[in-house]
Amino acid sequence: MKLAVFDFDSTLMDGETIDFFAEELGFKDEVVAITERAMAGELDFYASLVERVALLKGLPYEKVESICKTLPMMNGAKEVVEGLKEKGYKVVCFSGGFRDATRPACEKLGIDADFSNFLHAENGVLTGAVGGEMMYSNAKGDMIVRLQNLLAVGREDTLVVGDGANDLSMFAHSDTRVAFCAKPILRESATHCVDIKDLREVLTIAV
Predict the structure, then answer these.
(1) Domain CATH for 166
(2) What residues are annotated to the active site?
(3) What percentage of the chain reaches a pLDDT higher than 90?
(4) Model confidence over 119-129: pLDDT tens digits?
(5) Three-state DSSP class for 67?
(6) Among 89, 96, 73, which Cα is nearest to 163's?
(7) If pLDDT is split at 50, 70 and 90, which confidence band does 183 have?
(8) Which of 109, 134, 170, 197 is the most exposed place for a label (fewest CB within 10 A)?
(9) Residue 168 belongs to what domain range?
């Protein structure tokens, strides 16, 4: 068995989920600026996530659901998942974003499992609070080791694909590390770089 782990925002999905939410409330520019700095490794991921989600307080949860059902998938997302499965990979998604987005997308793409965070809602609106499995900068690294142990898969049979600083921790546990249209901090730790928005390029790297 082999394991492929993809980041979600700006990797499997073409954009940042939280930016779509913030646009509804008129805070997009502010949130985009924080996201950019976090993905570049200039801000602590946990602190930046908490700060950004706090700005979403008051957003109707039904709006969250409708946005998440129509998020644009990255070019080649469906094909890369199908192609990797044909090569014998279990395909998993790790996201520092939100389950509301990863769950429907991963079901659509045929991904085996997704790990992400949860937006807290009360009385049909977001409270500005967030919690979950992917809150910290080292969360993806911790989770990939747990999955490797569970599935008896070594780093030599693990492929990881991401774009930002919070993917560094999972890059540390894989021999095939793909920086996808990525920030410089991640490119430095990659074995391969894909600089066009087409995930099918990953199939030329996977063995």
Answers:
(1) 3.40.50.1000
(2) 7, 9
(3) 87
(4) 999 999 999 99
(5) helix
(6) 96
(7) very high
(8) 197
(9) 2-204
Which ranges of 55-178 does DSSP label H, i.e. alpha helix? 61-69, 77-86, 99-109, 139-151, 168-171
Strand order from edge to edge, sheet including 125-132: 125-132, 113-122, 89-98, 2-7, 158-162, 176-180, 192-194
pLDDT value at residue 40: 85
- Residue 62's Cβ-count burial label (10 Å; 0-12, 13-18, 19+) is exposed
Q: How far, in Å, are 15, 150, 170, 194, 207 from residue 79 at the CA level? A: 19, 26, 23, 16, 16
Helix (H), strand (E) at residue 199: none
Mean pLDDT of all residues in 107-132: 97
CA dihedral for 86, 92, 97, 99, sign (positive or negative): positive
Encoded tokens for 198: 């087409």
